[in-house]
Structure formats: C-alpha cells, structure tokens
Design goal:
Keywords: Membrane, Transmembrane, Transmembrane helix
Radius of gyration: 37 Å
Structural class: alpha+beta
C-alpha cells in the first residue's frame, strides 16, 4: 500500500515572516467566520418572506404599503393606469388621513368601474341562477327593441325613455341573453311566464321573441358587446341598493428578484346580506318582489291587457310598505314619488374633482369633529325627523340629523357631523375663497365648538397662504350644485322634505369638505330619482375598515436561510477544530493555508448545493429593494429607499462569492495549472464589482396601478387585481450570474496563457480534494 511521507519543509525551522503569516491567517479565519455569522443576521429580515422584502412584516411596512396603495387607488379613475413613485412624499399619507379600507369602495367598483358593456356582460355570465331575481335592477323594458315596457308608472316610463335608455341594466333581455334562460325560467316556477311571458305573448311578435330567448346561443363576449352597442347601449349600471354589503377582495401582484409573482391582498370586505335592514327597499324592489306583489294573472308588462296598473296602480307600494301610509311615508310619496318606484342611483365623482390640485396637500394641521347646523335650520321651533329618505319612521328631535348612509340601521339618530382634517380644510377653504363664498362657517357650530373652530380656521388660512398658490379653479362647480343634505322637517306644524345645498354660500366650506371625502370614497352621493322630484343626497362619512391580515409565505427564503446557517455552522466547527489542532501540534515549521480556508472547507465538508444556496441567498438580498416606511406622530408616513451601508453591501457581496467558489471548483479539471493567487484575485475582482454596483445602482421599487375586477353574482362579490409592484430585479440576478461566469472563464484563459510548470511532482494523497491539491499543494498533512 502506498505511503505518504511529510515533505522536507515540515521540519524546517519557523521564520518570523512565517509566524506573522500564520497570525494574520488565524485572524482572517476568525474574522471571516464572525462576518459569516453576522451575514446570517443581515439576510434573515429579507429571507423571512418570499417577496425578499427586508422587514416586510416586522416594522409596519405591510400596513404602510396597504394604506398608501389604497389611498392611491381611491383616486384612480375609470380603467386608468398610472405608475407611482413610492418615494415621492405624495405617495405617503398624513397622520390625519382616514386610512384603511373604505366601505364605499366596493360600491364604487360595482356602480362605476364595472359599468361598461363588457363589465356588465362578464358579470352576467358569472351570475348564479338563484341570484337573478335579487339583482338590483328595476327594468324599463323587456326587450332591447323597447316593444314591451315594464315601468310601474307612466312617469317612470318617461324617465326611462329620457334618462335610462342607454343603460343595459334597464332591459331584461340583456340578462336573459347571458344566462341559461330555460333553466332560470324553470326556477321561477311559472312566475316568469305569468308575470312577463304571457304579456309578451299577447303581441303578434311576442311568441317569436320567447322562442328566441329559449333557443338563443350565448355569443363570444366581444360579439355580445357589439350587439349591445348596436342596440344603442353605452353602459350597464345597476340600481343602488343596500340589500347586500358588496364583498371585495383586492390584491396587487408583487414580483420578487427571481421573477416570481405573488399576490398581496390589500383590501377585504366581507359579503353580508342585509335583508333585515334593507331600507332601500322602500325606494325600489327586486324582480322577486315584483313577482310576489301582484294578484293572480296580473302582469308586469305595460302593453299587456292584464297589466296591474290598470286595476291596482298602487299594488307595488302597498306590497312594499303597507296601507295606509304613515306620515313620513306620505311625505316621501307626495314630494319624491310613489314608494317602490324610485330609482336610487350611484353618482360618480366628476373627473375634474379627482384631477384637481388637491389630491396631495398639506398635512400639518390638527383635526376636530364639528356639528354644524345650516342657517335655514337654526330656527329653534323646527323639529327634525331624519335625513334618510329610506327611514320612514322616527321621533322628532331638535337637531339636524345625519344624512343617508348605506349602513344606516334607522335606529339611533345622530347629529349632522363633519370631521375637520388638514386636507379637507385646505381644500374647502381654497374652493370657498375661490368661489367668493363667505367663510363665516364657525357661526353654524354649537357654542361649545366656536372657539376651536375659529382657531382651526385661522391656522388653515395661514397654511393655505404658503402651501397653495392662487390659481383658476380646476373644478366645474355646476356639476356639484345639485348635491344636498336631506331632512324631513316639521315647520309650522307641517311635515315636509327640505334640503341644504352643499355649495350654498352659507354652507360651502362644509360642503367642500364633504366633496373631498366623496372623492376619497369616504362618502357617497346617491340620486333618488322619483316620479315627482329627484334628490342628489350626500351620505354621511363612513368609518374605514381595518386592513386584512397579511399572509406572506416564506418557503424558498427560509429554506435558503437555514441552508446558509448550515454552511456557517459547518465552517465554524471546522475552523475551531483546525485551530485546536494547530495549537495541539505546535511547534510547526510550515504555514497553514488559512487564506484558502473557506475554499478548502466548502470543497471537503459541504456539498455544492448548500454552498451555492448560500451565495444565491446573498444575491437575492442584493437584488432586492430596501423600501421602508418612516412613521412620525405628527407628519404621518412616507417611504424611504433605505439604502444599504457600504459595510452591509460588502458583507453581502462577499457571501455572493460563494457562488464563485462553486464555479471554480467545478471547473478545476479544466484548469490544471490554476493556483490560489489567480483564484483569489478573481474573487476579489468579483467582490469589488458587486460592491460598486450595489452602492452605485441600488434596486429601485417600481409600482404600477391598473384595476381589473370581476364580479360574482353582480352586486354580491368582487375580485380585483389592481396593480403590480416589483421589489426585486431578475435582470440584476441574471447579469450577476453572467458576470461571475465571465470572471471564472477569464481566469481559466489567463491561467492557461501564463501558467508555469507545477512544483508538485505527485499528488500528496488521494484523500485530498481537488481544491486542496490546487490551492494548497504543500499541505498534504491536512
């Protein structure tokens, strides 16, 4: 059996230079092992989530991002796209902002974003048959040709002709063309034919129309859009109803440094049936109740000889609220129109409001809640019975009530309330001043709030003078003048409906505050369009809901981190053992190859997969952005780039060179003349390059918002993907790998061109790894 003998150098006397080299080598090993352990601590905050986003879940980054994106999405107009710079101060939010999930946002999506023909068609095709009769739609016509009218009254039929003719939701045919008509008709147990079909069949072309419905084949979406457009339709808007709290799941897509895209949920609103507090039913009913309201053989088709309006025109109202009407119901009947025959409609925010210069404003002022009373209602003899036209029973009170609201339970009356906040007050004061309306607003609040109101007004005026230059108003106020607050008031012993126009000069300041909240989806404007009168009512402000719990998985990231722990653990154990061995075998006469410690250890004691994983983990950290929130109690939250220090970048860049160790180890058979100096020089070059690139060109986070939503059962549930955020750069990862390969290949070519004959006459022992032979050929004792 061959034997291996120590070289002659082993017995040579130690020199001073050798001892210095040995001392420096020991320091290098101890220092590099310590830095390796520190690197684990640096990598963990990034690798604890598969976004590879440093401290995403631990320092409020997730909630700050959710709040910021939700505020930006509130300003995103129909089908628009926009890129946002999260580092821009306007992308943050003020401490006074009502952050969270606005309950009205889901209705904004349903009644405005999905109001296109395509949105309506896709929604209808995702509608369960059992839900068809409960959709918020009070039809005007059976068919798109308008041959069979369906409005309950002649005045509403005229309203349909003048205002709703281009709205696809007012035609029953648009629904029936996009569902399984025969299956749905069967679920009505004959009600469709009795209430609608038989009335249609009386006309000469009625049977052919019914046959067409029964045999119609659903078209491709684009073909259906063209069909609707050819019929003169341009939108599909359901009636506003509070039968259901529309559910919402909204997410953004986040792409990490590996190019893997995951979804991050930023809004979640539960879908809830509100049948027990469905107060818009006093205004309008669904088709199911229309079927049930009529006597036997009566029809909903106005053309039919059996149309219910011929014999019992009040049948819908009586079925809806009973008979006789109470005093409140009678007031609404007399001044708005018959109950059950009013069209509640969502009013979109005008684009010029959303695009005004106040989307990002000054946030250094304080907040307060005020309770103003409009000047026309300051008469102490007045008695107020409510501001919600759908609440038809109430006791009288001496204060002005809150306006209509989606979730109003018609139980405890609340006084009219406005929340003074910096952004609202700046916007309101600017517009009130620009419109030439007086700012004697503090005269309208209770005596206990007057001093605080004047103080807020003075500070707001001072801030406005420095924050916003005077310029021509960007808002066309004529589109806003009809919006009002609604009240049922007893004046001089008589009940009646009264309104306060928001932009009336005496109330304009508070009106502009409400309009700002409307633009931010904190309020809504609902048009109650009746046979006698129409009222555009500003709702009360809704309290925001909390953000959803964030569940960001960590599969790959945590795997890479624990693999890195193994690498550091093994290196530490081997290092301590070798140090002990060197001390125990002293004195020695030849230097130990300490400066090749990690190369030799990784080749002999670790597999290439673990070593490569350690390098990849560090590379993912370097290839990911470091966006972080800065939260202050007075100024709110903004985002900072959070650039890594040179020291941190240097440590992570050093860990990336583990990849280089593996590549050099794999290619050793092709570099028989390689030596340690060449390998070390290449590694140093790679480390410097990585460090310079990370310091000079850190990864930037890019964000792009574009909302894409799909409804489930139309006005029941919405699912939205509303943007894309890139936290990492796959390009940086790819170019780094390419650069490392180029360094290795360059070193091979350089080694072949400049090699010298090897001084090693034979392999010291077959027990040594190729790396040990290449980088420390005289250390056969190791």
């Amino acid at each position: 059996m061959p034997r291996t003998y120590p070289s002659a150098a082993f017995a040579a006397p130690a020199t001073r230079s050798w001892r210095l080299l040995e001392f420096l080598g020991v320091l290098y090993v101890l220092g590099s092992l310590g830095i390796g352990m520190a690197s684990l601590a640096l990598m963990y905050p990034t690798l604890d989530n598969d976004f590879f986003w440093v401290r995403f879940l631990s320092n409020g980054m997730s909630s700050a991002l959710g709040h910021a994106l939700n505020m930006q999405l509130s300003l995103l107009t129909d089908n628009a796209s926009m890129g946002i710079d999260l580092l821009d101060p306007s992308s943050g939010y003020a401490a006074s902002d009502a952050v969270g999930v606005h309950p009205a946002y889901a209705r904004f999506i349903m009644y405005q974003e999905l109001a296109s023909l395509r949105g309506g068609i896709l929604g209808l095709r995702n509608l369960q048959l059992a839900a068809v009769e409960n959709v918020g739609a009070q039809y005007c016509w059976v068919d798109l040709g308008r041959r069979w009218a369906m409005a309950y009254t002649q005045r509403r039929q005229e309203r349909c002709r003048d205002r709703y003719a281009t709205n696809g939701a007012m035609y029953m045919e648009t629904f029936l063309r996009n569902i399984d008509f025969n299956a749905w008709s069967a679920t009505t147990q004959g009600s469709f034919m009795q209430r609608i079909g038989d009335g249609v069949a009386e006309s000469p072309d009625g049977p052919a129309f019914l046959t067409y419905l029964a045999t119609h084949q659903i078209l491709h979406v684009e073909s259906e859009v063209r069909f609707w457009s050819d019929a003169g339709l341009d939108r599909f808007v359901l009636q506003y109803t509070n039968l259901n709290q529309i559910g919402l799941e909204e997410s953004i897509e986040v792409t990490n440094a590996l190019g893997v895209t995951s979804r991050l949920r930023i809004k979640s609103i539960s879908q809830v049936s509100r049948a027990t507090v469905w107060f818009t039913s006093s205004m309008t009913l669904t088709l199911m109740y229309g079927f049930g309201a009529l006597s036997q053989n009566e029809s909903l088709v106005r053309n039919a000889s059996t149309f219910f309006g011929h014999t019992s025109p009040n049948a819908i109202e009586i079925y809806n609220v009973g008979s006789p009407l109470n005093a409140f119901q009678q007031v609404v009947h007399d001044q708005l129109g018959p109950l059950g025959n009013t069209d509640p409609l969502w009013v979109p925010v005008p684009l010029d409001v959303l695009q005004s210069p106040f989307a990002a404003a000054y946030d250094a002022l304080t907040s307060m809640t005020l309770h103003p009373t409009p000047r026309q209602w300051r008469d102490p003899s007045l008695v107020f019975f409510g501001g919600n036209p759908t609440c038809l029973t109430s006791a009288g009170y001496s204060f002005v009530h809150e306006s209509y609201g989606f979730d109003d339970g018609c139980m405890t009356p609340m006084p009219l309330t406005l929340h003074w906040s910096p952004l609202l007050s700046l916007f309101a004061l600017y517009m009130a001043t620009l419109m030439g309306t007086p700012t004697t607003l503090c005269d309208l609040v209770p005596q206990t709030e007057i001093d605080a109101c004047f103080g807020l007004l003075r500070r707001t005026a001072d801030a406005l003078a420095t924050a916003i230059p005077t310029e021509e108003a960007a808002i066309n106020v004529t589109t806003l003048t009809t919006i009002s607050i609604f009240q049922i008031v007893r004046r001089n012993g008589s009940l009646g409906i009264e309104t306060q126009r928001l932009l009336d000069p005496s109330f304009a300041f508070f009106g502009w505050m409400s309009i700002y909240e409307w633009a931010m989806n904190t309020r809504e404007v609902i048009l109650f369009d009746g046979d006698i009168e129409s009222y555009a009512v500003m709702t009360y402000a809704y309290a925001p809901l909390p953000l959803p719990a964030y569940t960001v998985l960590s599969r790959l990231g945590v795997y890479l981190w624990y693999g890195s722990v193994v690498v550091s653990g093994v290196a530490l154990a081997v290092g301590l053992f070798v140090l002990w061995l060197c001390v125990a075998r002293a004195p020695r006469s030849s230097p130990t190859p300490w400066f090749y410690f990690h190369r030799l250890t990784s080749a002999a004691w670790l597999n290439r997969g673990l070593v490569m994983g350690r390098g990849v983990a560090a590379l993912l950290c370097l290839s990911s952005g470091t966006l972080q929130p800065l939260v202050t109690a007075s100024r709110g939250t903004k985002f900072l780039a959070g650039a890594r220090s040179v020291v941190v970048s240097g440590i992570l860049a050093g860990d990336v060179t583990w990849i280089l160790y593996v590549l050099q180890d794999i290619l050793l058979p092709f570099t028989p003349h390689s030596d340690g100096n060449m390998a070390s020089s290449c590694t140093l070059l790679a480390w410097l390059s990585l460090l310079v690139v990370d310091v000079a060109a850190p990864i930037k986070v890019t964000t792009h918002l574009h909302r894409s939503c799909l409804s489930e059962n139309l006005d029941s549930m919405l699912h939205c993907v509303s943007g894309h955020l890139s936290i990492g750069s796959l390009r940086r990862v790819g170019w780094t790998i390419v650069a490392l390969w180029l360094v290795v290949l360059g070193s091979i070519l350089l080694s072949r061109a400049t090699h010298k004959p090897s001084t090693l006459s034979r392999v010291p022992t077959l027990l040594l790894s190729a790396a040990a032979v290449a980088y420390a050929p005289t250390s056969d004792r190791l």
